[in-house]
Write a structure and sequence with these properties.
Blueprint lengths: L2 H15 L5 H7 L2 H19 L6 H7 L9 H8 L11 H14 L2
Amino acid sequence: MALSAEKRKLAELLALVRPRQSMAARMAALSLADRLAFERWATARKEWHSKFDAPGDAYTALLDGNEGPALNWRISQKVFAPAPEMPITESIESIRQKYAEYAETKT
């Protein structure tokens, strides 16, 4: 099998395991500096959550203005960018087209 065919097959397998818009794909697309910043934020966020004993205490703290550590906005947009809105009244074909366009622009 030619090298180009092997590369194409690998890309197809990766697309099955890690679709373009999956969290894994978004994390893989981050630069090393952004990935490290995200990991520091995730660690700080876990530590913040561990300070609360009862399930609703973290939510109460949020309402009281204690939002905990914040993730850099630029990184949060890369990792948690919202998917396109798909109103329930749209046709299946329209939804397919919107999602295909979204997936292509977010690669």
